[in-house]
Every structure is written in structure tokens, then in C-alpha cells.
Amino acid sequence: MKDNKLIILYILMLVIGFILLFSNSSSSTEDKIIEAQTETHTDKGSLTEMVTVAVAKTDIPARTIITPANYYFKTIEVNKQDFNKSQYIFASKQIDEFVAKNNIEKESLIQHKFLASPNSPEYLSLSLKTGEYIFPIDIAKEDTYLLNNLKTGDLIDIYVAYSSEQSSNIQNSDGVTLVSPARNFLTTKIKPLIVSKKILFIENETNNEKQQLGRINLALSNDEIKLVRTLMTNATIILYPSNFTQSLDDGMIMLSEQEKGWPLSERQILNYKKINMLRGN
Under DSSP, is residue 120 helix (H, G, I), strand (E, B) or coil? Predict the structure, then answer.
């Protein structure tokens, strides 16, 4: 009887041992599966991320001044190890009014190396069209509102202030003399000379003791420069923010054919007939 009890005890011990063995094996397998899944999820999360970058909305030709019409922001998933964030655009301030250094294809990610900033020397040469030159105009103290309210890329209209007066010169059959500036504010008129010209860059003068506080640099054609520069010698030239919405290749579009030919022509630059576009009359 005693031997039978021992045998039964041994059998029970074996059964319990097998149960414990299979239980530990199953638990270990489940732990390994969970651990593997966790590692896979962690690895994926650490290697990729979502970023929002600037993408070309259309084909962008070289020398184009970039505006929101040329690009949009797109959210994409990238590999952290392969994607160099320092090369790409993530904010509008990094691209607006920059100039394209080369052709940029539609739907391609826009990189910093494709662009030149408005403050760089490279921007000046790239932003000029064929036949255009950089023309600086000094801003006096009374015109500081231009420096405070305008920025690179804004448009400027150039006017001449003048008046017509009776003349005793018998060679003038009209009996009228044009003077600038006017000697009587009641007869002062202003006439557009060049309109809708883009500001390439603005130079601010830090020395307030000087008469000029800054300089606005415009892109003008050879004929436009001749017109403005010659009048500057003895006439009052005034700059105003433009009434136009886009830059014009021919900024002298407002002038008559007679006036466009000056100073190459000997004919009078300004006529005294009623002008359609006036300010301050």
C-alpha cells in the first residue's frame, strides 16, 4: 500500500511539472511576440515623420520672383535619416519675393539652393530683365514714409511736379512756360513719368544727420533712366506707392509719344493740356 501511494505521488508530480512547463513556454512565446511588435512599432516611429514643405504649384522659370501663386505647402512623410530639413522651405517668409536661380519643375520640393534672397547680391542680377538696370533714388527726410511703408518687391510710380505759367518769350507761340517746382501752390500739378516699377531693394541710412535717410533701388530701362535722370537736374521728382497691381515692362506707358521721345528729341517733354491722371490738383 505504501508503494502504491508513492507511485501515485510521483505521477501527480510529473503531471504538475508538465503543466508548469507548457504554461511557461506559452507565456514566453506571447511575451516575445509582444516584444517584437513593440520593437517594430518603435523602429517605424523613430525613422519617419510628417513634415510640411513648399512645393512648386506650376513650372517656375529661372529669374521668376516667387509669390504664393507659384507654390503651396504639402504635408508628406519622410525618412528622418534621408531627409535633410535644412535644405527645404517650411515657411512663407523663406520664399516670398525670393528669385528662382534655375527652372523649378511643377510638384517638386523647393529647396533653398534654388532661390536667392532679396538681400543677396545674386538677387539683383537675377531679378533684372534684359535691358534693365539698377537705378538708385535717394530718399530725403520728408519722404521717410516710403522707407517705413514700402518693402522689396513693392511698386513705385514716379511723378514730376510742375506748373504752367504765362511766358513773355516770343519764341513760345503758346505763351506758356513750364516750371518745376511750381512757384504757386495753386497751380501745382503732378504728372506721371514712369509707373509700376518694382523696388529691387531698399538701403536705410543710419546717420540721421544726413539730408538723405535712405535709398530705393529700382529696375529701369535705359530710356526710363534718361528721362528721370535728366529731369532730376532741375525739376522736382516725386515717388509714390503705385496704383498698379503688377510691374510694367514699359513704365512710360502713361506718356504721350512726344514725351516718350524726350530727351532724345528736342521737342518739349511736357504739354500743358489737361492730364488724365493727376494727384494733388
Answer: coil
CB 159 within 8 A of CB 182: no
Is-contact 180 160, C-beta < 8 A?
Answer: yes
pLDDT band per the 50, 70, 90 thresholds, residue 106: very high
> Which amino acid belongs to residue 275?
I
CA distances from 127 to 98, 132, 212, 230 (A): 9, 9, 26, 25
Within the chain, what is the greatest distance between any pair of CA atoms? 156
Give pLDDT tens digits for 226-257: 889 988 888 888 899 998 888 888 888 877 77
CB 137 within 8 A of CB 98: no
Identify the structural domains of the chain with CATH numbers, from first to last.
Answer: 48-124 (3.90.1210.10), 132-260 (no CATH)
pLDDT digits (tens, 9 = 90+) for 18-64: 666 655 554 455 444 444 443 444 444 568 899 999 999 999 999 88
The separation between the first and the last C-alpha atoms of the chain, rounded to the nearest angstrom, is: 133
Which residue, 131, 102, 260, 128, is CA-closest to 199? Answer: 128
